[in-house]
Design goal:
Blueprint (H helix, E strand, L loop, with lengths): L1 E2 L5 E2 L12 H16 L3 H4 L3 H25 L7
Antiparallel strand pairs: 1-2
């Protein structure tokens, strides 16, 4: 620990806390290339705002119906 001009103590930065290489940048570039080649862009899937809202509504409706149907067949027993 050292003191600066104002008398406050501080911990000096060690070389262990500094990044050593660019491995994370290389990995992220690889992930970006794979992602760009594998998945369509959001605007490709939903060309306009209305299409997105229709898809969200259908997804919500299907989820609610699936939960209702599942609730008829799945029973949770109270342990007590």
């Amino acid at each position: 620990m050292s003191e600066n001009e104002s008398g406050y103590r501080y911990f000096p930065k060690h070389s262990q806390s500094q990044p050593k290489g660019h491995a994370s940048r290389v990995v992220m570039n690889l992930v970006d290339k794979v992602y760009d080649a594998s998945f369509p862009a959001f605007n490709d899937v939903f060309p306009d705002e209305e299409t997105f809202y229709v898809a969200a509504a259908v997804f919500t409706l299907v989820t609610v119906v699936a939960a209702f149907v599942a609730s008829r067949y799945i029973n949770i027993k109270n342990r007590g």
